[in-house]
Design brief:
Elements: E1 33-38, H1 53-60, E2 83-88, H2 96-112, E3 116-121, H3 127-138, E4 141-146, H4 165-171, E5 175-183, E6 197-199, H5 201-206, H6 209-220, E7 225-230, H7 252-260, E8 267-273, H8 284-302
Parallel strand pairs: 1-2, 1-3, 3-8, 4-5, 4-7, 5-6, 7-8
Helix pairs in contact: 1-8, 2-3, 3-4, 6-7, 7-8
C-alpha cells in the first residue's frame, strides 16, 4: 500500500473507495488497523437508513485527505499505523443472524492476529456482536459510550433493538458496569437503578473537556476498553443525519477534545454508528463521523 494514498493532492475525491483513500484489502499482512463497514439498520426504532452510513462516511472522508498532519497533532497517523479498508460485511436482507455470524467470523480472525478495528455502522445494535467478538479475545471489557440514549432499555421483544445492547452486554458478562461510562445522555433513565457512570449532556456541556477526560480515565483505568460513539451524542445542529436526534447535545469541537484526551487508554476496539445519510444536510453528519473516526485513529497512533 503506497504512502501516497494519504498525501494531499488535487484528486482527494478521486477513486475514493476506502476510508481516507485506504486500499481495499482483506489480507491481514497489509495493515495494522482495518476499517470495517456494517451496513445494517434492522434494529432501528426511529427513522431507518443507517445501512447507508458506512458509504457516506467513506465519501465524506475525502474532505480530510489533504492534511498530511491533522491539526492539532504534530505527526501523521499514517506514518505510525498502516491502514486498510476491509470493506463492508455482507448478509442476506433481513437476516440478523448471518450478519452476527459474519462479525464473529471476521473479527475473530482480525483480533486474534493482533489487528485493531474501527467499525462504521449501521445502527447501534451492531455494537453488541462487536463487543462479543472483542470480549472473546480480550476478556471482559471497560466501555466508553458517547450517546444521547443509555441503550439499556429492557423491552419485550427487544432481542434486536438498537436501544437494548447495553442491557444485554453486562448480563452476558461482556462489559464491566463498574468500568463503563456514558457521555452525553439526555433521555430518560433512572439514576438510582443505573449501573453505569453517566456524564449527562447538561453536565458534559458545562464541565471542561479535561474534567470529562479525568472522569473517563478514572472509570476505565488500564482495562481493555471499547469505545462506541453514537453520532446522536452530538447536537442535531452538528449531526442532523441520524434516526433519533435529540437537541441539547455536544458540539463536534467538544467531542473531538474529549477524544484527544484518551491517548494512553487501552483502546482495543472502536466504532462510530447511527449515521443516516437520507436525513443529512451537506454531508454535515457524515463529515462529523469521518472526522471522529480519524481522531480515534490518531489516538491509537499516538500510543504507538
Amino acid at each position: 500500500m503506497s504512502d501516497s494514498s494519504f498525501t494531499h493532492s488535487h484528486s482527494m475525491h478521486a477513486n475514493l473507495f476506502g476510508y481516507m483513500g485506504a486500499a481495499l484489502s482483506r489480507n491481514l499482512d497489509d495493515a495494522d488497523v482495518f476499517i470495517v463497514g456494517l451496513p445494517y439498520d434492522l434494529a432501528t426504532t426511529g427513522r431507518a437508513g443507517t445501512r447507508s452510513g458506512p458509504t457516506a462516511i467513506r465519501q465524506a472522508s475525502g474532505n480530510l485527505r489533504w492534511e498530511e498532519n491533522r491539526w492539532p497533532w504534530d505527526f501523521s497517523a499514517f506514518d505510525r499505523i498502516r491502514l486498510a479498508d476491509y470493506g463492508d460485511l455482507e448478509f442476506p436482507a433481513g437476516n440478523h443472524e448471518v450478519l452476527f455470524s459474519q462479525i464473529e467470523q471476521h473479527y475473530e480472525q482480525l483480533l486474534t492476529a493482533g489487528k485493531s478495528v474501527l467499525s462504521f455502522g449501521g445502527d447501534h445494535f451492531v455494537t453488541l456482536p462487536l463487543l462479543r467478538a472483542h470480549c472473546k479475545v480480550h476478556g471482559k471489557l471497560a466501555m466508553i459510550h458517547f450517546d444521547a440514549h443509555t441503550d439499556t432499555y429492557e423491552e419485550e421483544g427487544s432481542t434486536y433493538n438498537h436501544g437494548s445492547m447495553f442491557y444485554h452486554a453486562p448480563r452476558e458478562g461482556i462489559i464491566d458496569p463498574d468500568k463503563t461510562i456514558q457521555v452525553g445522555i439526555r433521555t430518560e433513565y433512572t439514576e438510582r437503578k443505573h449501573q453505569f457512570e453517566v456524564i449527562n449532556a447538561a453536565k458534559a456541556n458545562d464541565l471542561s473537556a479535561e474534567q470529562i477526560i479525568d472522569q473517563i480515565r478514572t472509570r476505565v483505568g488500564d482495562n481493555p476498553c471499547y469505545l462506541t460513539f453514537d453520532i446522536d451524542c452530538l447536537d442535531p445542529a452538528y449531526a442532523p443525519g441520524t434516526g433519533t436526534p435529540v437537541v441539547g447535545g455536544l458540539t463536534t469541537d467538544r467531542a473531538l477534545k474529549i477524544l484527544r484526551g484518551l491517548v494512553g487508554i487501552n483502546l482495543i476496539g472502536m466504532d462510530v454508528v447511527e449515521v443516516a445519510p437520507s436525513y443529512d444536510h451537506a454531508e454535515i453528519t457524515a463529515l462529523a463521523a469521518a472526522t471522529l473516526g480519524l481522531e480515534m485513529l490518531y489516538v491509537l497512533a499516538a500510543g504507538r
